[in-house]
Amino acid sequence: MAEFTTILDDLTVMIRLGIYDHEAEPQRVTISVRMTIDYPTPPSADAIEEVLDYDFVRTGILTLAADRRFALQETLCETIAVLCLDDTRVRSVTVRTMKTDVYPDARIGCEVVRGR
Hints:
Blueprint: E1 2-17, E2 27-39, H1 55-67, E3 69-70, H2 73-85, E4 90-99, E5 108-115
Parallel strand pairs: 1-3
Antiparallel strand pairs: 1-2, 2-4, 4-5
């Protein structure tokens, strides 16, 4: 068994996220995803067919950002974690979201870790 970690780091999206009236409009959120992936053997052919193609994670997040409103960062993180775990090779996933513009002097975020 070969274990790898695939990382999608600091993807910035505009998303409707929050509980307050002023958060009804999309706001800037950065999202990072770390997936621990098990492969039966290390990739040897240098071909995308041997590994997890991370495009599905990015595309899934962009679709969520365009199509859905979330009240809580916790719910957003959990939804992204479930998306990642849909691929049975993903053993565990860490998802972090950060609202970048809530405060002038800090970012506010959430992180969830899920595994099989």
